[in-house]
Design brief:
Helices cover 37% and strands 13% of the residues. It contains 16 helices and 13 strands. The protein has an eight-stranded mixed beta sheet, with helices on both faces.
Length: 475
């Protein structure tokens, strides 16, 4: 290795790692070994990985190095060749366990893998394992049989959920970017509490197949990363429909890429903003409002037109959301429910009590609200809001008073992020602010349905104006 110091490898972005490998300045084996050493030293602290695929990762790195050595002039390498990553444990992998964050499935390996897992491999990435997830993706924190995912910015606080392991892994420098998925904020919540860029694409942008059954059509797959460009490159690798998908997002024109859009100026945009959480029960923390105001000031300074709007989704529909989520919790068959966490058992018990009429009525109500919100905001290129109503919290705060209080506190912390899953719009957490305590406080930008590329361009402009990737937690 000639161009980079070993101790600084994890501080390179995914695209910088790929470029160094192509230039012969960095070996895939050295890079993978560096990441595995960091996982061995830090994973017990941050609870990022539920399964570390040591031998598989090493074998893939050796194969990548061999391919480099045998390459002839002009041979094309995949765009992310040799770059380490990892996959959230809710997503099927046929070559390593997929536990869905549950002790009931800790030894389960699916017979088929998710399409996105194959696509990431074909893009050249090397998976280091599976990332801790809230059990069945049902909570805004990630405490499971595999450990408690903690934000590296304060190890007493949760890394969020349900993609908490993904957020912890990237924030701690265990991998440069990671896969997550999001059915109610599960990419954007961890991104906010871990100080990362997290991108939930438009519905149908990335395939959920072949095992990603989602009866309420809220689930999306997306990246968590330190930079917008890395997220865009990962989205380029994963994007595209597959046979059997119920929804297909319109593709980019030939010759364009999301990474290319992340390097474009977005032009002058019209942006709506709101901070009303839609419920008198929610008290938005002053640090959150400070981050929101600073983001507004930055957008205005960049020439965008920002105006106040009413909360697009109106009053929060807590009961309707909980009815839908409780029924959704039953989509995974479980032989022995005593192995499940108390909150998961609570969700499933509630789900069995919801009648078909009540479920369909709740689903229809929230989908109608989503449609009305998109109509109300159609004249805006993007909408700004807080990502969360509270700074990162201790996981014990959610759990200490039982399951009903747990759900109430999850709503008090995260009243904003589920709505975009109903509407299907692209939505991103942008890590523009840290509190006086040193805690990351994100803001959320949401674009029009299908206009992921323009949203990425706007987020990249904000990153260029107020860079955040050089900030690292003290681990």
């Amino acid at each position: 290795m000639t161009g980079h110091e070993q101790g600084q490898l994890h501080e390179l972005s995914a695209l910088e790692q790929a470029a160094a490998i192509r230039a012969g300045e960095l070996s895939p084996v050295e890079l993978v070994e560096h990441c595995l050493a960091r996982i061995a030293g830090l994973n017990e602290l941050v609870g990022a990985f539920s399964y570390v695929a040591v031998e598989q990762a090493r074998a893939a790195a050796v194969a990548a190095e061999k391919r480099l050595g045998e390459r002839h002039a002009g041979d094309e390498l995949p765009p992310l060749f040799g770059v380490p990553t990892a996959v959230k444990d809710l997503t099927g992998t046929a070559d390593m366990p997929t536990s869905f964050g549950s002790a009931a499935f800790r030894d389960f390996t699916p017979p088929v893998e998710a399409h996105l897992v194959r696509l990431l491999r074909e893009a050249g990435t090397i998976s280091l394992g599976k990332l801790n997830s809230a059990e069945f993706g049902l909570s805004a924190y990630s405490d499971t049989y595999a450990g408690s995912a903690r934000t590296p910015w304060d190890l007493t606080r949760t890394a969020g959920g349900s993609s908490g392991g993904s957020g912890a892994a990237v924030a701690a420098g265990l991998v440069p970017f990671a896969h997550g998925n999001d059915a109610g904020g599960s990419i954007r919540i961890p991104a906010s509490v871990c100080g990362l860029f997290g991108f939930k694409p438009s519905r149908g942008r990335v395939s959920n197949g072949p095992l990603g059954l989602d009866p309420v059509i809220q689930l999306c797959q997306g990246p968590l990363s330190r930079t917008v460009a890395d997220a865009a490159a990962m989205l380029d690798a994963m994007a595209g429909p597959a046979p059997g998908d119920l929804f297909w997002a319109p593709p980019l024109p030939d010759g364009e890429s999301f990474l290319g859009w992340a390097g474009r100026e977005p032009g002058k945009l019209r942006i709506g903003r709101f901070s009303d959480p839609g419920s008198d029960e929610v008290s938005v923390h002053p640090d959150v409002l400070a981050a929101y105001e600073r983001a507004t000031e930055l957008l205005v300074s960049l020439g965008h037109e920002v105006e106040e709007i009413e909360a697009p989704f109106g009053l929060s529909m807590v009961e309707e959301f909980q009815d839908v989520w409780s029924v959704r919790s039953l989509r995974v068959p479980v032989a022995d429910e005593e192995q499940l966490l108390p909150l998961t058992r609570y969700w499933r018990t509630r789900g069995r009590s919801v009648s078909a009429e009540r479920f369909l009525g709740a689903l229809q109500d929230i989908q109608l609200r989503g449609t009305q919100a998109m109509i109300a905001t159609q004249r805006y290129d993007a909408v700004l809001s807080p990502t969360l109503a509270l700074p990162p919290q201790r996981p014990e705060w959610f759990k200490e008073l039982g399951e009903e209080a747990d759900l109430k506190r999850q709503f008090l912390a995260s009243p904003y992020a589920a709505a975009q899953n109903v509407s299907g719009q692209p939505s991103a957490n942008v890590p523009l602010h840290w509190s006086d305590e040193g805690l990351p406080i994100g803001v959320m930008l949401t674009g029009r349905l299908g206009e992921d590329a323009q949203l990425l361009a706007l987020c990249a402009q904000l990153e260029a104006a107020r860079p955040w990737a050089a900030r690292w937690p003290d681990l």
